[in-house]
Amino acid sequence: MDSSPPKTITKALPRFSELKPPLSEDIIEALDRSGFEVCTPVQAETIPFLCRHKDVAVDAATGSGKTLAFLLPLVEIIRRSNSYPPKPHQVMGVIISPTRELSAQIHKVAEPFVSTLRNVNSVLLVGGREVEADMNTLEEEGANLLIGTPGRLSDMMKRMEFLDFRNLEILILDEADRLLDMGFQKQVNYIISRLPKQRRTGLFSATQTQAVADLAKAGLRNPVRVRSRAESKSKTPSGLYCEYLKCEADQKSSQLVHLLIENKNKKLVVFFMTCACVDYWGLMDQKGRDTALASFTEASSGVLLCTDVAARGLDIPGIVYIRSVAIKDREVLEKGLKAFVSFVRAYKEHQCSYIFSWKGLEIGKLAMGYGILSFPYISEVKQDRIGIVGFTPVQGITFEDIKFKNKSREKQRQQNLLARKDKLQQEKRGKRKKSSKEAVDDSNKASRKRKLTGRQRQTIQTAQDEEEMNGDYSLLKKLKKGSITEDDFAKLTGAHDYV
Q1: 269 CB neighbour count, 10 Å cutoff
Q2: Residue 417 located in a structural domain
Q3: Across all residues in the chain, what is the average pLDDT?
Q4: Higher-confidence position of 494 and 177
Q5: 187 and 71 within one domain
Q6: Can you tell me the mean pLDDT for 277-288?
Q7: Where are the alpha helices (DSSP H) in 195-265?
């Protein structure tokens, strides 16, 4: 008797050339040139539905191949449209993604497939570039496929009224969960409101939250739900191998440096919790993002420092060395403070509080790791009475004396210090003058009160008595007319006080 376990029969994934309805020969050739032959599960399920003009809501893991899952049917739908080939300003498709880098990546992947279409121009619209340049591109070269971030896309749609969306065929919402998490609900709703209802829509998301479900109800018509993780509920690809290391907060620097050295011939990405942390450790100018990403992509090895809303930040303590640098350069000191405070607040507000335990954060050691010389005031720490065990302040340092190495910045700082001191002195002088004036006024009032004669005081008292009697007489007339009751009269005249 055979006791071996039963074999699992796995259905072979189809080739792109085997999909039904079939893709055009131009697309198949472009796929062959790019080295794509066999579909991934999400591609095998999604492409046929979109090509049959079905709306789809796709639940796909990051790295599952969903970019081609919407790009290929998008190109096919445009090719088969009654409006093909389109006029220069006739928009046939829109792809919305949450970040500039992701939009640029989609635009690059789309190029070889869009190039198979006649008179179709794809345009990348993202922030960080001159608005006028994008406007000129749209006006002079036209746009038939818009790829970009919600902010810039909605802005261009408002500004460029000559863009014609009446014959739009397809809308793609990539990383829909992140679009909503990053606060783009208003912009996405505006874009959808400008598009015709008779269109195809594809919504792709790594997680299916209630907000994503609501967006699907509003933007999709009878969508087909595609789940590419039927066998596993994991939100990460099965081929991704994860490891983690537990260590003290003040040991992270040595552990991270060791990891970087051991893998110096590989490409590494270090995720941080906040932009301030990246600025502190990476020292990268915002304008260099595109250049840095391009050079990292082309390089055979390197380290990329960046943030991610879903990734835990890695602080990199440097203990004595970083503190010594902070003492010599105020820029390092200020960036360290900003990065530390932003990390602490992001940690406290993190949605996954079960893992990111606020009470368990070794905030003292963490401050040492950021090269903090004196523990700053943080309202969250004071309110929750979090201890700062492990932190040792630097003695004998006057923080105002720490200078910028950059001479122009130091000169500006000195000017600001002088201006601040002058302002404080003026405020002090103003307060002293105000106090002196108030004291004189009080003295004059008391003096005037003391100077009143007996006849004057009697005259004032008589006037007050007459005013009170007139008031009582007026109330008495109201009582006789029935405007008020006897109880009201007693309360208003104070008669109850004598009962």
Answers
A1: 12
A2: yes
A3: 77
A4: 177
A5: yes
A6: 51
A7: 210-219, 252-262
At residue 454, does pLDDT exceed 90?
no
Among residues 114, 110, 111, which one has the least CA distance to residue 84?
114
* 3-state class percentages of the chain: helix first, strand second, coil last, to nearest 5: 55, 10, 40
What is the number of structural domains in the chain?
Answer: 4
Cβ contacts of residue 21 below 8 Å, gap of 6+? 48, 51, 52
User: 64 with 195, same domain?
Assistant: yes
Same domain membership, residue 443 and residue 363: no
**What confidence tens digit (pLDDT) does each residue in 215-230 have?**
888 788 888 888 865 4
Residue 304, strand partner residues: 269
Verify that 429 and 474 share a domain, yes or no.
Answer: no
Q: What is the reported pLDDT for 190?
A: 92
Length of the chain: 499
Distances (CA, A) of 417 to 295, 409, 420, 424: 41, 12, 5, 11
> Can you list the positions of beta strands (E) in 115-231?
122-125, 145-148, 170-173, 200-205, 224-227
341 to 335, 375, 383: CA distances (angstroms): 10, 10, 15
Its domain, for residue 324, covers 249-401
**331 and 406 in contact (C-beta within 8 Å)?**
yes
Give the tens place of pLDDT for each residue, 352-375: 766 667 767 777 777 777 777 777
Q: Is 200 a domain residue?
A: yes
Residue written as token pair 């006057």: 398
Report which DSSP code applies to 62. Answer: T
Residue 499 clears pLDDT 60, i.e. is over it: no
Q: Residue 340, class by beta-carbon neighbours within 10 Å (0-12 exposed, 13-18 middle, 19+ buried)?
A: buried
Model pLDDT for residues 287-324, shown as the tens digit of each residue: 565 666 666 666 667 777 666 533 322 233 334 545 56
Residue 278 included in any domain:
yes
Q: Which residues contact 472 (CB under 8 A, 6 or more apart)?
A: 493
Given a contact cutoff of 8 angstroms between Cβ atoms, the answer to whether 60 and 177 are in contact is no
Whether 212 and 203 have beta carbons less than 8 Å apart is answered as: yes
Angle subtended at Cα 464 by Cα 461 and Cα 469, rounded to the nearest 5 degrees: 125
Which H or E run includes 180?
A: helix 176-181
pLDDT of residue 87: 92
Residue 50 CA to residue 56 CA, distance in Å, equals: 7
Q: How far apart are CA 391 and CA 374, in angstroms?
A: 9
Q: Check whether 435 has a pLDDT greater than 60.
A: yes
Look at residue 3 in the predicted model and tell me its pLDDT: 43
Q: What are the structure tokens assigned to 388, written together?
A: 């700062």
The mean per-residue pLDDT over the stretch 10-32 comes to 87
